[in-house]
Amino acid sequence: MAGAVALAGMSALRSGAGRVRLLVPDPCLETVAQFEPSYMTSPLPADQAGRIAAEAVETILETTKAATAVGLGPGLGRADTLSHAVIELYESIEQPMVVDADGLFTLGQITNEHLPIPAAPRILTPHPGEFARLTGENRSLEGRQELAIQLAADLGVIIVLKSHHTLITDGETFYLNKTTGNPGMATGGTGDVLTGLITGLLAQGIEPLDAARLGVYIHGMAGDFAAADAGMAALIASDLIDFLPDAVRQLERP
After folding, report:
1. Residue by residue, what is the 3-state secondary structure of the chain?
2. Which class is domain 2-114+176-249?
3. What is the mean pLDDT of residues 198-211?
4. Domain map of the chain by residue range?
5. Which of 74, 83, 87, 225 is the most exposed place for a label (fewest CB within 10 A)?
6. This prediction's pTM
């Protein structure tokens, strides 16, 4: 899914991050690079199917030493050979990390009590389906929110539970975004935009919980601007990226 990582990269750029590097399987590097010339791309070893190979872990760990924040998941792919790699990256990378999409899929295959304690703050951004895989439970909206607060406390992470009113919690406090966002954003790729946005805010030194809260709010506002322009039915994920500058400027106004 080359578009997923490209959306995350473009969103990170629009968040204000000064330099964005995308690590992608070698066979799709050219495709990802063609989306946007402003981010950098680096190749990772790939298997015969074009998926990231297990030996890519060393390359990722070495490359991310120079980073201030990391996003893991969009466009990663799903394969048995990736499971150990994802867990090692989740545990070992020493920068704040946002985990989404295929990264969450891998974490959902491991019981929570066996998840390692990470080396730095982690922000998990599941939609309801991904959250059900993480917890092994399929609850109502209110039940999911209660469980998210408990899970964040148990794992020592921040959880952004995406829904109509997205919940952000570190297990001690929680916040609901009721002021921005719309149903048109329930379309493929908008979660990748949120991953890039929060990662870019982390890269600027914003505290993880604040980066998650601010990212959700700006993401929703960009979605509202996009819906006003194109309509909710026609809204697509890349529209949000186009309107991120407007959303940021709105917050900068006195």
Report:
1. CHHHHHHHHHHHHHCCCCCCEEEEEHHHHHHHHHHCCCCEEEEECECCCCCECCCHHHHHHHHHHHCCCEEECCCCCCCHHHHHHHHHHHHHCCCCEEECHHHHHHHCCCCHHHCCCCCCCEEECCCHHHHHHHHCCCCCHHHHHHHHHHHHHHHCCEEEECCCCCEEECCCCEEECCCCCCHHHCCCCHHHHHHHHHHHHHHCCCCHHHHHHHHHHHHHHHHHHHHHHHCCCCCCHHHHHHHHHHHHHHHHCC
2. alpha beta
3. 98
4. 2-114+176-249
5. 83
6. 0.96
